[in-house]
Amino acid sequence: VQLQASGGGLVQPGGSLRLSCVASGCSFSRYTLAWFRQALGKEREFVAAFRGLGGNTPHYADSVKGRFTISRDNAKSTVYLQMNSLKPDDTAVYYCAAGSGIILSAVRLERSYVYWGQGTLVTVSS
Question: Is 70 helix (H, G, I), strand (E, B) or coil?
Fold first, then answer.
């Protein structure tokens, strides 16, 4: 399984970006897809996830709820992260991740995910 993330860049506070992550080599619809992020000097943290096998409820970290939206297009094997009202604290390298057989209580855990993309840098600054 390979994950290729893109869409990062420099944006002013209050702006928007959309990240994309294309997956190959897996039965995409069966996988739980997630976004994590890691700011400089900090541990990687959960951002959002969308479970596979028909899971219709997205999951968000409290820090991004109401501003970020995760979605997936199974036909394109792609997961998106729409980020609005960006803040300087959102500055980080964003990683997409994939895993199978992840139970609901483990969706936010980094160790639940086996496959990781290379990361894309998001910088929020004026």
Answer: strand
pLDDT digit string, tens, across residues 7-35: 999 999 999 999 999 998 877 788 899 99
Structure tokens at 100: 């199978």
Q: What is the largest CA-CA distance in the chain?
A: 41
Spans in the chain with pLDDT lower than 70: 53-55
DSSP bridge pairs for 112? none
Tokens of 113: 């995910």
28: left (phi over 0), alpha (psi -120 to 50) or beta: alpha
Distances (CA, A) of 93 to 9, 27, 90, 96: 10, 26, 9, 10
Would you say 5 and 94 are in contact if contact means Cβ atoms under 8 Å apart? yes
